[in-house]
UniProtKB/TrEMBL annotation:
Name of this protein: XdhC family protein
Domain annotation XdhC Rossmann: ranges: 77-218
Originating species: Flavimaribacter sediminis
Top-level taxon in the UniProt lineage: Bacteria
Length: 230
């Protein structure tokens, strides 16, 4: 690979941005394509399919073979609230291949004893997210029921275009939440991206069942997400 392309590829990966290295099989032509680059024609269609699937592949366009090597950032889940649901969700999410981080400023809840081997930040979300910002390959699950803790990361998740945003609470609770988010300047379309009540509707009752519903909802959002069309 050309050294300048390699430097750009490494920079994109370090910034957790999806990228595809397109290489001519029968020649030395190569290029990097970012997820929202405007690539027209059959190559553009192939690039969109590759970003959606996350799978590298060979394509032949106009008699020319090209290999699409796909680099997607590892998907991660940021959970706001060191609650019982989080205790069940963290190990399940790890088994499913997600990186997991839990944020909760309430030190009585955010303890190593309750969350062994979990990336745990006993900080206010605005401070914790400053060091580790959200992005398009992050799922955000707000589980505290406390607007002082949940609202900031929900706003940040909307701005970062997280692939999944969910918030715990009844429809009445969410109605109040919507009013606050509107007051904070978010549009109806942006707020509608929030899964609330959080998780797939499977009739979950216990914290563990709710965790299953949340994880299933996150996986569905990740696998059905669409890259921007060229």
């Amino acid at each position: 690979m050309d050294l300048q392309l390699l430097k750009k590829l490494n920079a994109e990966r370090a910034a957790r941005r999806a990228v595809i290295h397109v290489t001519g099989v029968d020649d030395d032509d190569e290029q990097l394509v970012l997820e929202h680059d405007d690539i027209s024609g059959e190559l553009g269609e192939a690039v969109v399919r590759a970003f959606n699937s996350g799978k590298s592949s060979m394509v032949e366009i106009a008699g020319r073979r090209q290999f699409l090597n796909v680099y997607l950032p590892p998907a991660r889940i940021v959970v706001i609230g060191a609650v019982h649901i989080s205790q069940a969700l963290a190990p399940m999410a790890k088994l499913a291949g997600f990186d997991v981080r839990i944020i909760d400023p309430r030190t009585a809840f955010a303890t190593e004893a309750r969350f062994a081997d979990v990336d745990l930040a006993a900080e206010w979300p605005d401070e914790a997210l400053k060091a580790h910002p959200l992005d398009a390959y992050t799922a955000l699950a707000a589980l505290t029921h406390d607007p002082k803790i949940d609202d900031y990361p929900l706003l940040a998740a909307i701005d970062a275009q997280c692939f999944y945003i969910g918030a715990l609470g009844s429809r009445k609770t969410h109605s109040s939440r919507v009013a606050r988010l509107v007051e904070a300047g978010k549009s109806e379309a942006e707020i509608e991206r929030i899964s609330a009540p959080i998780g797939l509707d499977i009739g979950a009752a216990s914290p563990s069942e709710i965790a299953v519903a949340i994880l299933a909802d996150i996986i569905q959002a990740l696998r059905k997400r669409k890259a921007a069309a060229p």
